[in-house]
Every structure is written in C-alpha cells, then in structure tokens.
Specification:
Two copies of one chain form a homodimer.
Chain A (H helix, E strand, L loop, with lengths): L8 H20 L2 H8 L3 H8 L2 H13 L2 H9 L5 H18 L3 H11 L1 H14 L4 H17 L8 H17 L1 H8 L4 H23 L3
Helix pairs in contact in A: 1-2, 1-4, 1-7, 4-8, 5-6, 6-10, 6-12, 7-8, 10-12
The structure holds a DNA duplex.
DNA sequence: AAGTAATTTAACCATATGGTCAAATTTACA
DNA sequence: TGTAAATTTGACCATATGGTTAAATTACTT
C-alpha cells in the first residue's frame, strides 16, 4: 500500500498492518512483510508499536471499531421487530461488503486465542460504552412481545439472533467455498450473489418467523 | 495424545497431527509440538511424512473424508424436499458435533491458501467419486419443482443452499462468540444450545420457504 | 544366532523471525 | 543558524523452526 501524502507514518503502518493481519492472521503475518509493504525499515515498526502483539492488538481494535456501535444503533432504535431485522441485515451486509476479511479473521483469532481476543473485545465495549447485556435484554423483550401477541412463532431469542448472524456472516467467511463451488469461481457472480442476499435474507427470516 | 497399543506409529502421528493442526492451523502448528504430543522424536515425523506440507495435506484429507459422502447420501436420497432438509440438518449437526473444529479450520486455510486447499478438495472428490455439479443440478431441479407447484416460495436454489449451510455451520465456527457473549461462557449451555438447533433450524428453514 | 531391513534417535544445519541498539538523518524551534 | 528532539536506518542478536544425516536400536527372516 502506498502512503498518501497527508498520512502520518504511524497511521500508514497501521493501515498496512491491518491489510496483512486481516489476510494472514497473527501467526501467518511477518513483521518484515508489513515493513516491506509499507516501504519502511522493520525497526520502525518496533519504534512505533514495540511488539508484534501490540501492533496486532491495535489493528484488531481499529478494524472492529465500527461493528458494535452499528449493531447498537440498530437494536436500540424505535423500529418494529421486522423493520429492525430488515435494517440490521441491510446495514450488516453493507458493513461486511466494505470489510469482507473481518469475520474470518475474528473467528480464527478467537478460536486460536479466546482469552487474548476476549480482552480486546472488553476494552472495545468499555471505550464505546456498549452494554451488550442490556441490548440483548431489550431485544429479548421485543421478541417476547411479538411472540405473546401471536405475531411471530415462538422462538428463543438467542436462537433467532444466531440465525440472523449466521445468515449475514457465514457467506463472507465461506466466500472461497461459495465462489469456488457454487459460482464457477467468478468474482462478479459472487458480488451479485451477496448483493441479492440483502433482500433474500431478511425476507427469509421474516417469512420464517411470521405467522400468516 | 497417548498411543493405544494396536495403533501404528504412523497412524498415531497422524492423529496427533490432526489434533494440533485443527486447533492451530498450518501456520500456528509447530512440528516440535506434534512430536512432543506424540511422544516421539521430531525426525520421526519427517521419516514418515517428509515435510510439514505433506503431513498437513494428509491430515486435511483424512479430517474431511466423511463430510462429502454424508452430504451426497442425503441429497441423492429419495426423500421429499422437506424431509431432505430435516435429515440434512440433523446429519450435519451430528457430524459437526463430532468434529467441531473442522469448519473454522477449513475456512481459515481456505482463506489463507485457496489454491492449495482447492487442490486437496479436488482429490477428495475424485477419490470418493463425487460429482458436485450433478448433485446440485439434482437438488436444483427438486427445488424448482416445489416452487413451480406452489409448495414453496420462489427462492434461488443457491441462496437456499447457502442459507442452510450458514445455519448449520456458523454456530460452530462462532462458538467462542456465542458461548462467550450469549451463554455466559458456559460449555454445557452451549451444548444444549447446539442440541436444540437440530430442531430449531430445520423448522426455521421449512417455515421460511413453505407456503401455508 | 546372524544378518538385513525397518524404525528411532541425537546432533546438526541453514534460514527465518521478532526484536535491539547505536548511529545517521530529518524535523522542530529558539 | 545551531541544537535538541524526533524519526529512520543498517547491522546485529538470540532464538525458533523445518529439515537432514549418520548412527543406534529394534524387528524380521532364515
């Protein structure tokens, strides 16, 4: 990646590091590669970020920053459940189209080193004033109201949440499989496929839970 | 892992290697660790499997062996679409409960090195006489018939397949997130949660696509 | 029991890797 | 302009890592 003129070296390193870490993970990333891609000396990485771990942590935080607040905004809005689902799927797909490597990256690092990543998560929550428990309680109540009033089928809120997340996130982590096996390895077909899912998925979910 | 008495050293190494590779991935795995866990000298790894790459390839193949034939058996059976979906979800969840690390492993390696893994996939297909194209065509037809006869809502077969796979696989790759954020980090709660999904998911899918 | 082949080990090797350090260069600013 | 601080670099280090090799040990065959 080329450094644009009004970008500090420190930020430039972070951007390049993000690019490499996201694609190759903590283990697969070489400090030398980051240095080369950033067009700088390896010592400079350590000058700004001390160790690989610290650089990684920073990258992780920055990359993940936008995700939770976006979710929060959606869950805490005043919309109806169906509107929320539609909005959530739409926003989430947009976010993931812009950051397609994040999910596989997070999942891998989380499976590799839960403790380390969990700690990073926690600090993101704190810094962004996010109280997940409260958010889920809120959503939970809203779902329960709809269930009780006979508008949607009885479904455990957590199962529903996991269903929604599955349908949104999996197509990105499984991109090589979907593209390779289902879509003749054609990038533009994959893009179209994802684009279509914005409608398909929310329809699918709403159709699954609504009582007609 | 301890070697049981009637297991050859070669197989023992493979089992231990699988355990380590699945958890840590190609990059994260150290040959020394495999040797230590197998209770043997590192040279012996190379004696039997030459290089890390070759050992990895073998592990990958063995670990993945059971998946595709299971899918095939299901898709090519004589059941109705709904029955197939129910059977598929059930079988797949059972398979994944027994091999919970496989999905995250495959996804990571696929994102890291599509070419290498795609090649392994191809040889698995050949060795098991699996023609994915034909299988999908078959399923495609069956879905189209149900759509045309007004039994299910119009939905692109590929989108439906990805939906089904998402709902089955994602809960395993995202285990640390689900368990950590939604289930108070309680392993037994996670197990119950997964167990419940065998019913929840197929109900969800069928409810989503059926016209009532 | 002897001899041969298969298995296992210890000692090495070359290279890669994260990281350090002192010197050089650039920038800030008095 | 001079100088102190910040930035950048090249040379270097200790360790880890995948892999090799020759010797030692064990198993097999007659």
């Amino acid at each position: 990646m080329k450094k644009d003129t009004n970008e500090t070296t420190e930020d430039h390193i972070l951007n390049v590091a993000q690019e490499v870490f996201l694609k190759k993970g903590l283990d697969g990333t070489r400090m030398q590669e980051i240095a080369d891609k950033a067009g700088i000396n390896k010592s400079l990485l350590h000058y700004y970020y001390r160790t690989k771990q610290k650089l990684f942590k920073k990258v992780f935080k920055v990359a993940f920053k936008h995700f939770f607040p976006t979710i929060k905004a959606n869950i805490t809005s005043e919309k109806s459940l169906f509107e929320k689902i539609e909005a959530f799927v739409e926003t989430y797909y947009n976010l993931l189209q812009k950051n397609p490597y994040i999910p596989a990256f997070v999942i891998h690092e989380l499976n590799r080193n839960s403790a380390n990543v969990a700690e990073i998560f926690k600090s993101i929550f704190q810094e962004n004033n996010l109280e997940l428990d409260l958010m889920f309680d809120e959503l939970n109540k809203q779902i329960q109201v709809e269930v009780d009033s006979g508008k949607i089928i009885p479904i455990d809120a957590k199962q529903l949440i996991v269903n929604i997340l599955s349908l949104c996130i999996f197509p990105f982590v499984a991109k090589p499989i979907i593209k390779g096996i289902l879509l003749e390895n054609d990038e533009s077909k994959y893009k179209t496929f994802i684009e279509e899912r914005k409608k398909v998925v929310s329809q699918f979910i709403i159709s699954a839970i609504s009582i007609r």
